[in-house]
Amino acid sequence: MAAPLGRLLRHLCFPPWRLRRVLPRPSLEAITHAIRASEQRHGGEIHCAVEAALDWRRLLRGVSPRERALEVFSALRVWDTEANNGVLIYLLLADRDVEIVADRGIHRRVPQEEWERICRTMEAAFREGRFEAGLLAGIEAVSEHLIRHFGGQDIQGNELPDQPTIVRP
C-alpha cells in the first residue's frame, strides 16, 4: 500500500534538522529529567523515541506510525526489562503522531484504550506546537499507571536510557 501523496511530501519535506527546532536541547533535557524523576517512583521503565520523518522506502510500503513504533520498540529493546514493564513513547514528527507501546507486564494491566487516550492528549498539544509540554504530560500520564501497578517495587536500577533516542532512518 503506497503512501498518499500528501504524507509522502510531508515526510520528504521534513528534514532531520527541523527536529532540533521542535525539540531543542533544553526540551530534550527536560524530558530526560522527567523520565529520571518518574522512574524514582516506580519499578517500571519509560523510554522516549523521536523520529523526524520516515524514509521513502517505508513511506512507499505504507508503514503506519504504529508499525514503526513497534519496530523501534523492538530495536531499542524496550521489551527487554526484567519485569516486562517497559513503555515506549514514540513521536513521529512529520505525522505529528504519537504511539505508546507497552510491554506485556504493564500492557495486560492497562487497556489499550487508555494508552490511546494519552496519545490523543499529547497530539492535541502537538497540534498547538507544544511538543515539550505534550511529551511531559504523556510521561506523567504513563508514570501514573506505572506507579499504580509497579509502585513500591524494588527499583532494579535503570534498565533503559532516560534520554530520548533520536531515531535515524
UniProtKB/TrEMBL annotation:
Boundaries of every TPM domain copy: 22-143
InterPro entries: TPM_dom
Pfam families recorded: TPM_phosphatase
PANTHER family: BLL7265 PROTEIN, UPF0603 PROTEIN YGCG
Descriptive protein name: TLP18.3/Psb32/MOLO-1 phosphatase superfamily protein
Originating organism: Candidatus Methylocalor cossyra
Lineage: Bacteria, Pseudomonadati, Pseudomonadota, Gammaproteobacteria, Methylococcales
